[in-house]
Amino acid sequence: MKITRRQLALAVAGGTAAAAGTVGMIAAAPALAQNPPAATPDWDSVARAAHLQSAQALLKVDVPMDVEPAFQFRA
Amino acid sequence: MTDEIFFATITDLNTRLKKREFTTVELVRAFAERLEKIGPRYNALALALTEVALRRAKEIDADFKRERFRGPLQGIPYGAKDLLSFAGHATTWGAKPYASQVFDETATVLQKLDKNGSVLIAKLAMVELAGGGDYRIAGASLFGPGLNPWDPSRWSGGSSSGSASAVAAGLVPFALGSETSGSILTPAAFCGVTGLRPTYGLVSRHGAMPLAWTLDKIGPICRSAEDCGLVLQVVAGGDSKDEGSAGKSFYYTPQFTRKMSDIKVGFAPADMEWADPALRPAFQTALRVVRDSGVQMVEVNLPDFPYGEMADVIIGAEGASVFERLIGSGKVDELADPSQAAGLKASLDIPARDYLRAMRIRSLVIQKFRDLFADIDVLVAPARYSVAPKADEPLDTPDTGPQPAALGMRRLIPAGNLAGLPALCVPCGFAGGLPVALQFAGPAFTENTLLALGREFQNRTDWHKRRPPLVS
């Protein structure tokens, strides 16, 4: 799948969506300022790229093997 | 009745009902008429329930007459975010594909409020599917963009849009909203009202639209911290119908508040750099007010994790599972925001390994917050670092300013949600005529401490009493 620079910029923004503090509200991305939108983006590609970006950010965290998922979630 | 009742607190209204200054029927009718008249200005109203409410109000009045008192919420009208089911009436989840959806059971929180004598007068507008799938426009709603009573060219915030704008405009004394990651705090901050995100599991979600089971919370949006405490006391409590229920109750106990001097409050100086310059004076003044209340102020750093990305993956994976049938049917394309529909579709393909990784990191986050709260009691930070954006502009307007080196508390909203922590949003000033707000966040089940700080702050300031110019 080919992703345009604009889509990638939006994807970066999407990756920080929840960081903006409201579910799904796409956050501002500095990259976007350098790549102003030219046409309606291919939202499917943008969304997939955003998830990819998020997944890559998670890989940077060192998680010891014995750490279990927070399934039995109790605050 | 005079117009000032529309901005009165719950305690004030309940006292006056008991004194028979007016009846529940009169109060309900006054609010319902105002909501139906003014609510559409802000796209705040999803469904008026005036007739049902007036019938219920008559029964409440009969209770008052017989001196059957049910507590401080008796006779108080309110509105509920349209993701809460109310038997026999439309519950749209703010989304076109569900526009004619009707449930035959009422959400637990609405049942509890009814039992305590509160009167549901309307369902309030929201961002479609509470924002699941990522929205990038204020118009991502069946009801149109949520508009801000302080400036209708601005967004109300979301996803509890109507809940916050209706309280701000004096259309309901209080409202229920929900938060998965920011959907109570953000609209409360943008609209200049007080919002409480309870600890995960404290309030039943039975009868509420699920978006992400391990993150969803229901909470009150009110005029004051005290009102939030009164509402939380009623809606909190264990519920066997909610798998995430912590099985705990909540009693609002301002009489047992800890001494302010015993409370350690963590703050991050870098927050001032992250905040838009126009907001900094309000935050600096607000922090001084917090300090002057006698608490111990301690500099802290938020544990460094990719909170936003974690929330993105967890909400994406859980939300796609929740809405799998919608996505598969193709009706997802009826959503108002095409990027949101695309987000939901793409989320179906989030690999299990990514979800599991996010949930394992989440275990680390929970532990780090436990460690952090071993030394301090509460975190204080800006609720939002900018004012409400324009309603007709994309929400991804680029941030071109220089990025501070330190993280500050900028990610406290997703971090607090991932760790299941409670937070209270209180108005703390204005910038360019738009509300600015602080948040207090604490360890699980410390709502009374947060409310005590909020009450102390509101005893020393009057920001929560300000009224939007057009509806004063």
| Average pLDDT rating of chain B | 96
Shape of chain B: globular
Bin the helical content of chain A.
Answer: 40-55%
Low-pLDDT windows of residues of chain B = none
Structural class computed from helices and strand pairing of chain A: mainly alpha
Radius of gyration of chain B: 21 Å
Alpha carbon gyration radius of chain A: 15 Å
Order of helices and strands of chain B: HHEHEHEEEHEHEEHEHHEHHHHEHEEH
Strand content of chain A: under 5%
The count of DSSP E runs of length 2 or more, i.e. the number of strands of chain B, is 13
Quick one: biggest sheet of chain B?
Answer: 11 strands, mixed
* Overall shape of chain A: elongated
Give the strand tally of chain A.
Answer: 0
Q: CA-to-CA gap between the ends of chain B?
A: 15 Å
Sheet bearing the most strands of chain A, described? none
Oligomer category: heterodimer
Order of strands across the main sheet of chain B: 1-3-2-6-8-7-12-13-11-9-10
- Proportion of strand residues of chain B: 5-15%
What's the mean pLDDT score of chain A?
65
Topology:
The complex is a heterodimer of chains A (75) and B (472).
Chain A: H1 5-15, H2 30-34, H3 43-59
Helix pairs in contact in A: 1-3
Chain B: H1 10-18, H2 24-38, E1 45-48, H3 50-65, E2 77-81, H4 108-115, E3 119-124, E4 147-148, E5 151-155, H5 161-168, E6 175-179, H6 185-191, E7 194-197, E8 217-222, H7 225-235, E9 264-267, H8 270-274, H9 280-292, E10 296-299, H10 307-322, H11 324-329, H12 338-347, H13 352-375, E11 378-382, H14 412-418, E12 423-431, E13 434-441, H15 447-460
Parallel strand pairs in B: 2-3, 2-6, 9-10, 9-11
Antiparallel strand pairs in B: 1-3, 4-5, 6-8, 7-8, 7-12, 11-13, 12-13
Helix pairs in contact in B: 2-3, 5-6, 7-15, 10-12, 10-13, 10-14
